[in-house]
Amino acid sequence: MGQYSEEIKRRRTFAIISHPDAGKTTLTEKLLLFGGAIHVAGAVKSNKIKKTATSDWMEIEKQRGISVATSVMAFDYNNHKVNILDTPGHQDFAEDTFRTLTAVDSVIIVIDTAKGVEAQTRRLMEVCRMRKTPVIVFVNKMDRDGKDPFDLLDEIEEELKIHVRPLSWPIDMGQRFRGVYNIYEEKLNLYTPSKQYVTENVEFKDINSPELENYIDPEQAEKLRSDIELIQGVYPEFDVETYLKGDIAPVFFGSALNNFGVKELLDCFVNIAPSPRPVQAVERVVDPEEDAFSGFIFKIHANMDPNHRSCIAFVKICSGRFERNANYKHVRFNKMMRFSSPTAFMAQKKEVVDEAFAGDIIGLPDTGNFKIGDTLTAGEMLHFKGLPSFSPEMFKYIENADPMKAKQLNKGIEQLMDEGVAQLFTNQFNGRKIIGTVGQLQFEVIQYRLLHEYGAQCKWEPISLYKACWIESDNAEALDNFKRRKAQYMAVDKEGRDVYLADSSYVLQMAQHDFPDIRFHFTSEF
Ligand code: G4P
């Protein structure tokens, strides 16, 4: 097809998602080691937002500053270009993660074998399901005692609402862990419980052969044979197409800390994971292999230095080739712009690049021109969809604490919202501004940044709200009637869309019952 086809086809852009502590950072680091992107363990770890620092915003700020460079980690592996998009580990930044998921073509989910499916994984999987993102599951920490693998697979199917197909199978666990049988490659991967050791790989097509006992205990061999038989009987053959449609998730078992099963995961991943996929714009579907460049902003990272209010806007390239110093259209402004210092992320370094292709992420230095969701093109008026806002979990009124600085406050709020730090709803009844977040920490972030970057002071006042629902109806009269009846609870979001603020789940249920013509949505795109 297009002239950049070869470059684009070899790209694999993905994110690793997990509940905190399941082993995302450790796995990322091991993948980077295989890709030759780093040479010592511990390099990624130091960039991680420490879990203990829940309310220490300064500390997080500092660490987030360092983590700009690691927002995207790219490396070459077996003639593939792998782009890993980092997602914040802290759950208060879940909204950031949701948006990052709009920029990836597939994901790897890490699950702790002892803990099974946890809350944050469940929520993130909902986003994947909505977008039909292909997922691979890595069950981590097999060197520890955990749940029975069959039970775990059932749990994954039930909790994550996706069919699974094991492509490797553990031989025992915890202290007796001997490795896995790699069903995908028909190999026996034996485990040496010392860090940074290459695993022993044995070609092993027929596990019914008595030779198996030369490698593992007779008891373990018997168990493995009967497990594999069960798997072949219960689970359908693995089919790449079904995986690519997001209908089945292949499952691998291993131990990231011990570097066990990681290479096998990576080998399978580059083989089966999708290259950049077509992206839906309002106007049409954009194919990655089209020659003309297009992309959208999915993340804006503020500069930590309050004296330079500049940001980095992260662009996911959806089609074609991006070239430094070329003219591209900023669609919202309908204006051509040139970018003289786009940065790309190779390994852990951020450097200016001359070109990048569909699938890649580039950073554009920005001084307030961009909002999350903005589209850039070679000239066409395209608007990429798929960057929904989700109903926040926590709400507070934001009030001005320094009457002399009202202007600064409003500007600050507006810019922070464009950056996607939180969501703003303006109550139509009393005109008060409400900020919605997914965690307490974001309120602290906003207060701190308003003061340090805009010289504005805010104070928070409590409001008891359960959910923000975007509403619509085919029946204009019914909509008007609803808005009148619920006037005190009606607000508009940043884009001016109607939002109903429900103060309890009971009230919401009643509203849904009493107003059947109204559709209530928990995300801003429907
Ligand atoms: P996260 O990014 O998903 O939050 O998890 P992270 O990689 O930081 O891992 C969380 C903890 O689990 C770390 O221990 C890490 O060493 C450990 N871990 C990761 N993979 C494995 C594994 O395969 N087996 C075992 N036994 N442990 C694993 P920590 O004590 O919190 O940190 P550290 O002090 O070891 O750095």
Protein topology:
Blueprint: H1 5-9, E1 11-18, H2 24-34, H3 57-67, E2 72-77, E3 80-85, H4 94-101, E4 106-112, H5 119-131, E5 135-140, H6 149-160, E6 163-166, E7 168-171, E8 179-182, E9 187-190, E10 200-203, H7 218-234, H8 240-244, E11 248-253, H9 262-272, E12 279-280, E13 285-286, E14 294-302, E15 311-319, E16 321-323, E17 327-330, E18 335-338, E19 343-346, E20 349-352, E21 355-357, E22 361-366, E23 375-377, E24 394-400, H10 406-418, E25 423-427, E26 433-437, H11 440-454, E27 458-462, E28 467-472, H12 476-485, E29 490-492, E30 498-502, H13 505-514, E31 519-521
Parallel strand pairs: 1-3, 1-4, 4-5, 5-11, 6-11
Antiparallel strand pairs: 2-3, 7-8, 8-9, 9-10, 12-13, 14-15, 14-23, 15-22, 16-21, 17-18, 17-23, 19-20, 24-26, 24-27, 25-26, 25-29, 28-30, 28-31, 29-30
Helix pairs in contact: 4-5, 10-11
The protein binds guanosine-5',3'-tetraphosphate (G4P).
